[in-house]
Specification:
This protein is of the alpha+beta class and about 475 residues long. A hairpin with a 4-residue loop joins β14 and β15. The chain is built from 15 helices and 24 strands. The protein has two domains: about 10-80 and about 150-335, 2-Layer Sandwich (BirA Bifunctional Protein, domain 2); about 360-460, Rossmann fold (3-Layer(aba) Sandwich).
Length: about 475
């Protein structure tokens, strides 16, 4: 049975059901009826998100000598958002339904919303009930709150809608503290908040989300070359480090009428979801817009002096900005497969082993003490090198299926023969192949299997090479 079509209309529904059942993610505050577009991440989801964060951090900070890390506050001086333009322009067009459903919608998403509901894109009225819609009005997406004990205008602040501005306002401090020379980047991960009018598609568009962003500061005139470099590098990360299939990714360059007011070039890494192409990451050439805006508003000098040429200038910035929640959903969706095994349906998440919540599961064949003692001892031993889980509940077949559903690459079975031959069986997730190995060499055997699993994930991600080759170049919509 072939893997599900990525545009199958019920793929998201099936995945969301699995994720709630197995503890990847679910609605927040569900015992009180939930709260719209806010989610909690369960034990498996928290583990997997941590793995994705670590992969990004490894690629963007630890393996590079030209990027510095930073962590800035969620609440900043409100003048930051005035200078950046968010207070005046960070808006979406809002329309209200005057019909039976009384819902609010983003005016620029109406065509997509109608299409999702099986209606013509240009159908009149509300996407839900067909009722009359009001004229569009602009709605600011920033969450307002108050600092201190009195809720008056003087104390009004905002939850940050992006992490980028913290890196811009701290640019001069980072240069002074690290003595960095251009080009170099500043990277951070953290929560952002946007009061979305019409959040949709589970965790794809939410009001609280996590960003993984880097601002790469460079000399004016070199920015377009760096933009091209980061487009290539970020596509490589999604495919090679995360195992997302290249045939379902594309790099789409924005047309001139799409570009933000601060950008001269922007390309989006997009994935083919059931509802169409959706953005995972944007790579934007922001020019010197942000640094100049903060210089003018604050009166502080954020220029850079290049000692080699005795030049002073305001750096240009290239920004690769990825969404953790969207990346998390994409990796789950891309890994989801259903197949028939001996007349039964098997659901398997073919996750890259560096992404999967667990790498190795240790499963005693039965709950008899002579087996569980050996199995627990092995699991504790393997924890020093791998992300491991111990499971002794239900039949071994059911436990294999559970590990398949949560994406665990390897399952180690301790059986009664182990007591005689001092060996265990390693079962591989995707091919369900099994090999018997001595306990004394178990760590190396697992490492070898995971190396093979990484190679298989890379090969799978690079399938449809002709599509992958095309998607590695910026594509314009036609």
């Amino acid at each position: 049975m072939p893997p599900p079509d990525p545009v199958a209309p019920d793929l998201l529904e099936r995945l969301v059901s699995l994720c709630k059942q197995r503890g990847f993610f679910f609605g927040s505050s569900e015992i009180y009826g939930g709260i719209n577009a806010l989610y909690d991440y369960g034990p498996l989801g928290a583990r997997m998100r941590r793995n994705v964060r670590n992969l990004w951090w490894r690629a963007m900070v630890e393996l590079r000598d030209d990027v510095e890390p930073i962590e800035t506050s969620i609440i900043m001086n409100p003048q930051v958002w005035v200078a950046s333009g968010h207070v005046a322009t960070f808006t979406d067009p809002l329309v209200d339904c005057t019909g039976s459903c009384r819902k609010r919608w983003r005016a620029d998403h109406l065509g997509d919303l109608r299409r999702e509901r099986g209606k013509p894109e240009d159908a009149p009225g509300c996407p839900e009930c067909g009722g009359r819609l009001t004229e569009a009005r602009q709605f600011n997406l920033m969450f307002r709150t108050h600092l201190g004990p009195v809720a008056d205008d003087a104390a009004q602040v905002y939850l940050r809608p992006e992490t980028a501005q913290g890196m811009f306002v701290d640019f001069a401090t980072v240069v002074q503290a690290t003595r960095r020379r251009l080009p170099f980047g500043i990277a951070q991960q953290g929560k952002s908040f946007r009061n979305e009018i019409s959040p949709s598609n589970s965790i794809f568009r939410t009001r609280e989300f996590e960003q993984m962003e880097m601002e790469f500061f460079c000399k004016p005139g070199t920015d377009l070359d760096w933009h091209s470099y980061w487009c290539t590098e970020r596509m490589r990360w999604w495919i090679e480090d995360c195992g997302v299939r290249a045939g379902r990714l594309r790099l789409r360059a924005h047309d001139e009428d799409e570009l933000s007011h601060y950008s001269v070039a922007t390309s989006d890494v997009e994935y083919l979801f059931p509802w169409g192409w959706g953005e995972l990451e944007g790579i934007a050439d922001r020019t010197d817009f942000d640094l100049r805006s903060h210089m003018e508003a604050s009166g502080r000098d954020l220029s850079y002096f290049e000692t080699e040429t005795n030049e002073r200038y305001v750096p240009y910035v290239v920004e690769p900005a990825a969404g953790l929640d969207r990346g998390f959903l994409t990796m789950l969706m891309d890994a989801y497969h259903e197949e028939e095994v001996r007349g039964e349906k098997r659901v398997v998440l073919r996750l890259h082993p560096d992404v999967s919540p667990w790498q190795v599961a240790v499963l005693p064949l039965s709950k008899k003490p002579q087996l569980t003692e050996v199995a627990r001892s092995l699991e504790q031993r393997l924890r020093n090198r791998f992300r491991t889980e111990y499971d002794e509940t239900q039949s071994i077949g059911r436990r294999y299926r559970r590990q398949d559903e949560i994406g665990t690459p390897l399952a180690i079975t301790v059986d009664f023969d182990t007591l005689d031959d001092n060996a265990v069986t390693i079962r591989e997730r995707d091919g369900m192949t099994q090999v018997r190995v001595p306990i004394d060499t178990l760590e190396q055997a697992c490492e070898d299997q995971l190396v093979a699993s990484r190679a298989a994930a890379l090969d799978r991600a690079r399938t449809a090479a002709d599509q992958a080759g095309q998607s590695a170049q910026p594509q314009r919509q036609g």
